[in-house]
Design a protein that fits this description.
Blueprint lengths: L2 H21 L1 H9 L6 H27 L3 H20 L6 H37 L4
Length: about 140
């Protein structure tokens, strides 16, 4: 799988996670934080994060497919994942699964940044190749 295909998988995954967070915030909260997180306020926050992830996922998906600003969208998602992971790791006495989810978010942030860099390098190389071609 090349970087572009991997970026599409990451973008689709982010959009799906966002849609699930929007549609089933109570379930997402129970999985992430346990039964105590089923308050209306927690559900509202989960929906806000869901909207963010849908926007970042669809933006990355569209930009990678169109070969435009894919690296930028992927890096924005990586920053969001990194912050999410750090915030989750800073929680006091969370369920063990919360720490695993936080580590996964951090790993996805690193992977997304690597994909972003690879796509940006490919875009630069393509632009350089185009500038070296003789004009007709």
């Amino acid at each position: 799988m090349d970087s572009r295909q991997a970026a599409l998988v990451v973008a689709r995954g982010r959009a799906v996670i966002g849609l699930v967070s929007l549609t089933f915030p109570g379930v997402v909260n129970r999985v992430f934080l346990g039964a105590a997180a089923a308050t209306p306020q927690a559900k509202a926050l989960t929906r806000m994060v869901g909207v963010r992830d849908v926007a970042l996922g669809v933006g990355a998906l569209t930009s990678v497919k169109e070969n435009t600003q894919g690296p930028e969208w992927l890096s924005m998602g990586a920053v969001a994942d990194g912050v999410d992971g750090l915030v989750a790791l800073a929680l006091r006495h969370p369920p063990r699964r919360t720490r695993w989810i936080a580590l996964f978010a951090g790993a996805n942030a690193v992977f997304s940044l690597k994909l972003s860099r690879d796509l940006a390098d490919a875009r630069t190389a393509a632009a350089n190749d185009a500038s070296l071609e003789p004009s007709a």
